[in-house]
Each structure stands twice: as C-alpha cells, then as structure tokens.
Amino acid sequence: MAAQLTPLAITVLALLNERDMHPYEMYQLLVQRRSDRLVKLRPGSLYHTVDRLERDAMVTVVGTQRDGNRPERTLYAVADEGRAALKARIAEMLETSVREFPQFPLALAEAHNLDRDTVVELLRGRIALQEQELDELDAIRAVLVAEGKPRVFWFGLDYLRTATRTELDWLRATVAEIDSGELPWLTRELHNQMLIQQARG
Whole-prediction pTM value? Predict the structure, then answer.
C-alpha cells in the first residue's frame, strides 16, 4: 500500500499527522510553507488526493467546520493505516535511490543537435534562473532561522540549496569550457566526417 502513495498523498498524510484539518487549510499551509518546491500543488489535485485517501481508509472524516458565512468545510484526520503507510513510504524513499529520469540530463545528452551559440545562450539563461532560485531558497532559510523553526522540519531545504548550488557551479564551468573551445562543439563538418567513418566501418 505504501508504494502507491503519490508525492501529494504523502504531503497530505504528513499534514494530517500534525493535526486534523480541512483541505483548504492544507492548501493554505502548503503555500505558506512553499511546499510547491517539493510537490506539484494545485487545489483540485489536493481535493482529489484527499478523496482518494478517504476511499482507501487512510484518512477519516472527523467533523465539519464553518468560518462566518463561508460554506462548511470537512475536517479530516489521519487513520492508523494512513500513518503506517506514510512512515513506510518515507522510509523507503530515504533508503532507496530511484532513477527518476529528469529532463535536463536528457537535454544535455542531445544538446549537440543545437548550434554552439544557442546552447551557450540557453545555459546562461538557466544559470540566471538557478541564481534566482538559490536566492529565494536562501531567503526562505533566513526566515525559518529568524523565526526559530526547528531545523528538523526543514533540513531538506538545505539539500535543495546544495543541489542548486552544485548545478550552478557545473553550469558556469561548462559554459566556460564551451566558450573557450576546451569542449569542442559538434560542427556540421565534424558530423559529416563521423558519418563517413561509420559508413566505412
């Protein structure tokens, strides 16, 4: 059962493991915590996930709540089965290295299909975006530290910061290699020569 949990289902169960709440509160809390950096977060998907978890008996309805003139909202609690599935799935994810096939390594493997200047320009654009991402992660970390939030709740943010910084270092070094000619680019002439050599066997 644990292996069937989607990333959003894990997030929902983890929230309900903190306290009972309704889906709208879950969404607001996830936005506040910037959890959209960890899971794809859309209100419709979240409500659908809660419904599925209820059908699978991992969460249960414990009541309703009304704020002012707003419609009643259904309160959910994590069930024992949901708590056990959450713990099992987190343990599995921590222990197991899974090949996730992200898009960027594939794009790098096929970048020779573009001309050198285009690749350099695109990678520089990615560098700018990653620099912005690192600034935002640093700002989030600074707020968490200033608010005295226990690091055990957000040390995964340090992983994201380290991964982003490492990618930035690699990107800058690679662009410099391409610019200097240390990493020779595949020209049409070189490509034709390779085809001739392959044909000759």
Answer: 0.81
